[in-house]
Design brief:
Blueprint: H1 5-25, H2 30-39, E1 56-59, E2 62-67, E3 74-86, E4 89-99, E5 104-115, E6 119-129, E7 134-145, E8 148-158, E9 163-166, E10 170-174, E11 177-181, E12 183-187, E13 192-203, E14 206-216, E15 221-232, E16 236-245, E17 250-260, E18 265-274, E19 279-290, E20 295-305, E21 310-321, E22 328-340, E23 348-360, E24 365-374, E25 379-383, E26 387-390, E27 393-396, E28 399-405, E29 408-423, E30 429-442, E31 445-463, E32 466-483, E33 486-493, E34 497-501
C-alpha cells in the first residue's frame, strides 16, 4: 500500500528529528538505525534533486497483478506496448514484470530505453533496479547517442551517472571510424569511451590497434596507453603513449615513438605529425631515416615536410650516409634538406650543414664551417676554411668538392690555394701547392693527385728509414701517386724548375711553403671526435 504524500513527509521529519537527537547525545544505537532504514521503503525516499525514486507505470495493454508466495507482495505482469518511467528515463518493451516493493523491472522483447533527447538503448532483455538506477540489457544490445552507435551482447548502464559498461566485446561506429574491443566503458555526458583489451579502430585510410585507448566521440580524438600502432597506405605509426585526432589526421606520440610516412622514418622521445599537411616535429633523441638514399639524420630537435620533402635538424645534429664498406658521419650545429625542382618530375634533394662541420669515415675525414650535399650528382661541397684528411695526407683550399658514387668517394676537387701536406717526421713535411687540385680514389682510398697552375712542392727523398735528400720544385702542373696513404712518386710537368739538396744543408726557411699549416690537432680520429669544437 502506498503512503500518502503528507504521511511520507511526516515520517521523514520524524526520522530526521530522532537522528538529530541521538547524534547530539552521541547515542545512536544500531537497532534504531536499522528500524528506521527498514521502515522507509527505497521508493519513498526522494533523491537529492527531489525527483521520483519510484518506477511509474505509464501504459500497458494488460496488467495482471499477482502476489509473491514468499513475501506476499504484489507484482505486475505487463503485456503489450509497455511503458514505464523512472525520473527522466522512459522504458518501453513488449512485456515486463514490475515489482513495486523492490522498485525493479524485468522487461522482455524489443526493449527501448530513452534518456534525454539523444540517448537510446535497445535490447532483448532488461533488468532495471530503481534504487541503484542501474540497467542490465542483454541480447543484441544497441546504444545510440548522437553520432555514436554501440553494438554489443550485454551492457550495464548507470542511469544516474550516465555510464555504460560492456565486457563481452563491442563495436562502436562513430563517423568514418569503427572501433572494437573486448571491454569498454562509455561516459555519456563526457562523450568518452574507455577501451581495454584488443582495441581496434578501422578507418577507410588506416587501421589502428592498441592495448588501452580512450576515444572522444565528439572530437574523434583517440588517446593511447600501452603498445599501439596504426597502419595505412601512406603512414605507419607506433608508440606506447600518445593521441591521434582521427578527424583532422593530427597526432602527437611519445615513448618509443615512430612515424613512417613512406618518405621518412622518424623516431624520437616525442613526435608530432599532421598527415594532411605532411608537417611534423620531433623532440629529443630524434632520427630521420631515408631508406631510399641510405641516410640517417639524428639530433634533439627536427621539423620536416613530406611533400615537397624537406627537413631541419639541430642540437647535436648528425648525418650518417650508410655504406657496407665505409659509412660517413657528419656533425654540425644544423643540418637541413630541401627538394629542388628540375626537369625531372620529382626534382632532387639538396642537403646543407652549417657552423662547425666535422666529417668522419674510415678513409676520409674533414672539417669546414659549412657544406652542401646534392643527391642529384652525389657531390659534397665544403666551404670556409675546409680541411680534408685522407690517410696520411692533409688537404686544404678555399673550397672543395667530393664526388661520390655508390656512397664511396670517386674523386675530389680543391679550388684556389690548394695545399697538400703529409708528415715525414716531427720536423719535416712533404708539401705540394697549386692553384687547383684533383684527387682520384679507388675503393675509397686516394691513389692519384693532379695539381694545376703555379705548382710548388717540397718532397723528401727517403731510402728505407733514412732521409737522403729534399726535392724543391716549381712548375705549371704536378702529378702525384699515392700508395697506402704515402706519396710514392711525383712528376713535374711543363717547364719544371727544381733542385735536390741534402736534407741537412737545406736552409730552414725553405722547408715550409707559403700557406703551410698543420691541423692534426683538430682532425677527427674516431666518430665521437666530430662533436669536439
Amino acid at each position: 500500500m502506498r503512503f500518502s504524500e503528507e504521511k511520507r513527509m511526516a515520517e521523514i521529519k520524524a526520522v530526521r528529528f530522532i537522528l538529530k537527537f541521538f547524534r547530539a547525545s552521541h547515542l545512536l544505537p544500531l537497532s534504531v538505525i536499522f528500524l528506521f532504514s527498514f521502515s522507509l521503503q527505497p521508493q519513498d525516499i526522494p533523491n537529492k534533486n527531489g525527483g521520483k525514486r519510484r518506477i511509474d507505470l505509464k501504459h500497458a495493454d494488460s496488467d495482471d497483478i499477482e502476489k509473491d508466495k514468499q513475501t506476499g507482495k504484489d507484482w505486475h505482469r505487463l503485456r503489450g506496448a509497455v511503458s514505464l518511467q523512472h525520473n527522466e528515463m522512459t522504458m518501453l518493451c513488449d512485456s515486463a514484470y514490475f515489482y513495486p516493493d523492490k522498485n525493479q523491472v524485468k522487461a522482455f522483447s524489443r526493449i527501448h530505453i530513452e534518456q534525454g533527447d539523444t540517448l537510446d538503448i535497445y535490447g532483448d532483455y532488461l533488468l532495471y533496479d530503481g534504487l541503484t538506477e542501474k540497467a542490465l540489457l542483454t541480447g543484441k544490445v544497441e546504444l545510440i547517442d548522437k553520432e555514436t552507435h554501440l553494438f554489443t551482447n550485454s551492457v550495464t548502464y548507470s542511469v544516474k551517472d550516465q555510464v555504460a559498461l560492456y565486457t563481452d566485446s563491442g563495436k562502436i561506429i562513430n563517423g568514418d571510424n569503427k572501433l572494437t574491443s573486448r571491454v569498454g566503458i562509455y561516459y555519456v555526458s563526457e562523450n568518452l569511451f574507455h577501451f581495454k583489451d584488443s582495441v581496434k579502430i578501422v578507418n577507410p585510410d588506416y587501421v589502428m590497434t592498441a592495448d588501452t585507448m580512450d576515444y572522444n566521440t565528439k572530437s574523434e580524438i583517440a588517446i593511447f596507453t600501452g603498445p599501439s600502432e596504426m597502419k595505412g597506405d601512406s603512414i605507419y605509426l607506433y608508440c606506447e603513449r600518445g593521441w591521434y585526432d582521427t578527424k583532422n589526421n593530427v597526432t602527437r606520440i611519445w615513448r618509443n615513438a615512430l612515424i613512417n610516412n613512406m618518405k621518412q622514418i622518424v623516431r624520437g622521445d616525442s613526435l608530432f605529425y599532421n598527415e594532411n599537411t605532411g608537417y611534423g616535429q620531433s623532440f629529443r633523441n630524434i632520427s630521420i631515416s631515408d631508406t631510399n638514399n641510405h641516410i640517417i639524420i639524428k639530433g634533439n630537435y627536427a621539423w620536416y615536410y613530406k611533400e615537397p620533402e624537406k627537413f631541419l635538424v639541430t642540437d647535436s645534429a648528425l648525418f650518417i650516409q650508410i655504406s657496407s664498406k665505409d659509412s660517413m658521419f657528419l656533425h654540425s650545429d644544423t643540418i637541413s634538406a630541401i627538394t629542388v625542382s628540375d626537369t625531372s618530375a620529382k626534382g632532387y634533394k639538396l642537403m646543407r650543414a652549417f657552423h662547425g662541420c666535422r666529417i668522419f669515415s674510415k678513409n676520409l675525414q674533414a672539417k669546414c664551417d659549412s657544406l652542401s650535399y646534392s643527391f642529384r650528382d652525389s657531390v659534397i661541397r665544403l666551404y670556409t676554411e675546409p680541411v680534408l684528411w685522407s690517410e696520411e695526407n692533409q688537404l686544404t683550399s678555399d673550397s672543395m668538392a667530393i664526388f661520390t658514387k655508390n656512397r664511396q668517394a670517386e674523386r675530389m676537387e680543391l679550388y684556389n690555394s690548394a695545399f697538400i701536406t703529409s708528415k715525414v717526421d716531427s720536423l719535416r713535411y712533404d708539401q705540394v701547392k697549386g692553384r687547383s687540385l684533383t684527387g682520384y680514389f679507388k675503393d675509397n682510398e686516394l691513389y692519384k693527385i693532379d695539381v694545376n697552375g703555379n705548382g710548388e712542392s717540397i718532397y723528401y727523398l727517403v731510402d728505407g728509414e733514412e732521409i737522403v735528400g729534399v726535392n724543391t720544385t716549381r712548375c705549371s702542373s704536378i702529378e702525384i701517386y699515392v700508395e697506402n696513404g704515402k706519396i710514392i712518386e711525383i712528376f713535374e710537368r711543363q717547364s719544371p724548375e727544381g733542385v735536390i739538396d741534402p736534407p741537412l744543408i737545406t736552409p730552414g726557411s725553405n722547408l715550409l711553403l707559403p700557406g703551410f699549416n698543420w691541423f692534426d690537432s683538430i682532425r677527427p680520429k674516431k666518430i665521437l671526435d666530430i662533436f669536439n669544437k
